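help with these tokens:
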Amino acid sequence: MPRASVGARHGHRTCLTAPVGEVRTRLAGPDDALVVAALTLQCARHRGGSGEPGFLDRYARAWLATENTHPVWIAEAGDDHAGYLQAAVVEPLPWPGRPAGAGADLVVDTFFVRPEHRGIGAGEVLLRAAVEWARDAGFRQVLVSAGIHTTAMVERVGFAADARAYRMEL
């Protein structure tokens, strides 16, 4: 049977810690919903967006309803939330010859390190934590889009460019 849920089925609600200097990362849990919402708002503002009344609560409720299929890792540096990585679990539908539960994909959706915490390894720590988690849970692959500033880091973690991927913005 395919994964029922990330947290319940795979028991990965434990803290994942991967230090690089003073950066730690952990898998977000229900108590982190407003932290994840605040980091999402900071990411949106950094990318040119604006805030909206009630966004934090709206986002927190939506994420809590889908946290089992949308895992989030939070990077911490000292007492600060340095950034986060949010992904989506994509379960394959049945296919002839592929055994049931043959492995899902983990697709990185949002990957953000606050500007004041860049250059200390926070992004790499986040990405490595997500990859380790997916590998331990039996996922088939992790997919991430790399921008001009993140390509070297993504390749350092072990990702390879896939020339077969195409995208159409709508």
